Amino acid sequence: MLITVGSVDSIRNLPATALMGDTIVMGFALALCCFLLPVTVVVAWFARQSVEGVYGWVKTGLGARSGFQAVWFQWMQNILVYPTLLSFIAGLILYTINPQLAENPRYLFVMINVLIWTLTWINLKGIYLSARFNAVCTLAGLVLPFLLIIGAGLFGFLTDNQPHVAQSTGFHEGMSLTAIILSLCGMEIAGVHGRESKNGAFVKALFLSVIIIVVSSLFGALTIHRFIPAEQLSLVNGIPQFIELVLTRIHYPQYAAFFNILVVLGCVGCANNWLIAPVKGLMFASETSASQTGLLLVQAGCVSLLSTLFLFFPEVNASYWLMLILATQMYLFMYVMMFASAIRLQWLSGQYRMLLFSVSGLTTVLVLIATGFQAPAQISVHSQWMYGWVTALILISLSWASCGFNAWFRSPFAANLSHKDRV
């Protein structure tokens, strides 16, 4: 449960979801009914049949090649979303030192690279060090900050201390709905650890995690919406903005740095959870002696390369959004294959009640993919048509790249690294 909650329930998503304004509750209700519940039910159904995670689930219904493609989409989403996650952590660290540094793309670029290579080093040391590190980060850096945020919201409600009445815009609603969906992705992430867990533990953890994630995310976003106007809210630095504002109002501004450090711990734990799970999925999918060391190094190198976007986009929010939407589309492609596999298996076995969840989830995912090709107003583009085609070409290129990686798994270089891992 800690792995699932720590991977999905991230404080960094709250500023983007808070931009949805007065329609936050409706957005979460829509995401819960049409996306999160179908995903959770289907993942729980699959978990009883395979302990290989997404790869094993898609392979069972659509074949080994499709299984590899699905876990490839999951891994590519991970690479694309890492710059946004690490930019949030970097922005929080820099904001604690000096708020002006947090909007400097060069400092963000340096901090992102320091973080990704440090986490890669931790995971190269083995799963036990990584698991202990995750537990500490999740408990200290997720629970306490969420209690502060929700407590501040209750205090504001009871005292009727509402500094503004924010109205959402079309851009904010579309952007925030994307952020809500991405913030709820990952319920399947702990499936690759099925072999290390007791029978039935994963399914119980799933449904407990749903309750925790929805309640904390919804009330956290409502609280931030209540305190900070949308036009003043930064996607990267919204959390330190909120912490500073709340602690200043209750006359304890000196503790802002302490809470920022706790949030950093929680987000680093989330980043560490996502670092290894998709890599394990690729190792299952390779069906060879694929190298975990090599995959971790390639993953870190790709994140470093993508982080250069912060150097080319003068507006930090624009860089953040571009990588967010690409990551979301990649993850939705993976869910298309997972739901398609479930539909085929459930239809052949006559499990028509389960089929309703799979069809509902697949329909929602396809609609979300279609809406993701429209550029929000904050990104300056020559035309919506051009933006849609460029986005499609990037996604197609990343999908085709799976063929090259499949060949790399069987290359002498990969085999040599794998031999070193075994030694």
Summarize the structure in words.
This protein is mainly α and 423 residues long. It has a single domain, classed as Amino acid/polyamine transporter I. Helices cover 78% and strands 0% of the residues. It has 17 helices and no strands. Helix 3 runs parallel beside helix 8. 50% of the residues are buried. The C terminus is likely disordered.
What separation lies between the terminal Cα atoms? 32 Å
Strand content: under 5%
**What is the total number of structural domains?**
1
- Count of DSSP-assigned helices: 17
Low-confidence stretches: 164-172, 417-423
The number of E-state strands comes to 0
Q: What's the CATH H-level homologous superfamily?
A: Amino acid/polyamine transporter I
Tell me the Rg in angstroms.
21 Å
Question: Which key phrases capture this entry?
Answer:
single chain, 423 residues, mainly alpha, Amino acid/polyamine transporter I, 17 helices, 78% helix, globular, disordered C terminus
Secondary-structure map:
Layout: H1 2-8, H2 14-18, H3 24-47, H4 53-62, H5 64-97, H6 105-124, H7 127-159, H8 170-184, H9 201-227, H10 238-249, H11 256-286, H12 292-306, H13 309-312, H14 316-349, H15 352-371, H16 384-409, H17 412-422
Helix pairs in contact: 1-7, 1-9, 1-11, 3-8, 3-9, 3-15, 4-5, 4-11, 4-14, 5-6, 5-11, 5-12, 5-14, 5-16, 6-11, 6-12, 7-9, 7-11, 8-14, 11-12, 14-15
